Amino acid sequence: MKKSLSLLVTLTIFVAIPANSIALSLNIFKDTQGHWAQNYINQLSINCDVKGYTDANGQFLNEFHPDQSMTRAELVTTLVKCKFKGQPLPTTTTLFPDVKVGSWYAPYVTKAAQQNWVSGYKDGTFHPEKPLTRAEAVKVILLSQFPADQVTADIAEFIDVKPTSWYYPYISFAVARNFVEGYKNISGQLTGKFGPDNFITRAEIAKVVANTYGWSLITTPPPVTSSTPTIIGKCQIFPSDNAWNRDISNDPIDPNSQNYMNAISIIGGNQNLHADFGGAGEYGIPLTIVHANQALVPVTITDYPQESDAGPFPIPANAKIEPGDGHVLVLDDENCMLYELYGAAYSGGNWTASSSAKFDLKSNALRPDGWTSADAAGLPIAPGLANYDQVAAGAMNHALRFTLKKTQKAYIHPATHYASSNTDANLPPMGLRLRLKADFDTSKFTGQSKIILETLKKYGMFVADNGSNYFISGTSDTRWNDEDLNQLKTVPGSAFEVVQTGAIIK
Questions:
Q1: Residue ranges making up the domain that contains 184
Q2: What's the per-residue H, E or C state across 162-230?
Q3: 456 domain residue, yes or no
């Protein structure tokens, strides 16, 4: 399998933050759930754009391989991504004969050497694929964060780390600052050994980097606080712990938040919030509710058959079609299955669509990575619509769906698909979650707009498709009050911030 640069960590060699401050609720890689370093790995992924392994076709596997060793090339790539995220790197030169121009790691190794974080062996080679020892990793990580003249020796009493060894200053410096510690026995007691020449694992690297860079670990996301779950027809819209239903008002801000917001501003177009629904029901996305006895019919998929769910679907001939994009949303409210079409048309007794997707509302399962849905991001549409009945009842207990003019060739779960060829790391990926800032004054707003804004503070909104900036979606309903909704047009995009929710998948 081809590696895509991920990284690392710390076993017992690192000082542990109290276990009660480490949350296991966020899981970016499928092979790190419950791992002792899960939260360090999450932070490494988020802060340093670490994505894990890919298969032979370049598709991400969502695997980190935490207990495997880390190579010299992998470590410097990770650290360069941490320190120079989004900045141009040297691509036409290399400082080592065994680091070829054009190799995936050449720009990172060259940059790290230019920064004096690493140097070659006596013969001038770098050995990019050579596994790192604990001592080597500590040295490189420290030099990526501290000037070399600041890394001075302290006292480090390890029986296997002699004051005369080349690595003594680095290990003692790191130990004195609680970046690392030695081995522990099965009872959790320090053994007095550091293991400087033992190979370091990817999990161990993640912890050392997190400690050295002073990252705060991801805390347990707050529970869903809604006393009333979102119900449409007879169905709760996804389990209460689903991403759409989670209160993110206290979640940490994404480190790249301001860059994302600046990029939206730079690309131009609409820069204020806009309700893409209303107009006496002329605007918005209609939802058709059917029951278990609705006949199943085939749907011919014209554009994305390999990323679509196969029919037949319980779509009646009179299902409402959204003007323009041709969305058809059908909810079987007895089996609690949601069926959605994009680019739909009904002619001669037959349904056709560009793409199709179905969602079990009783499950948190996502679509396969790389698959679209009736939405570009691979997300369901109906759960993200502003719903008149919910607003009229005084609260919406779920995130909303919105569009942006330009997006990145990447996505963040629960999204599973991108719709762009632009690799600019500051452009928003699909599935990015924005939140209305807590200090935004909503006291001057009234009625429907005020409820929507309070929803955006508590649950936020997901980037779901390409379109006009900050257009939020709602149901097609004649009861929306346009004069009320127009208040939203006074809310600038700058009133939002990006919430840290997971790894960017490219």
A1: 19-213
A2: CCCCCCHHHHHHHHHCCCCCCCECCCCCECCCCCCCCECEHHHHHHHHHHHHCCCCCCCCCCCCCCCCC
A3: yes
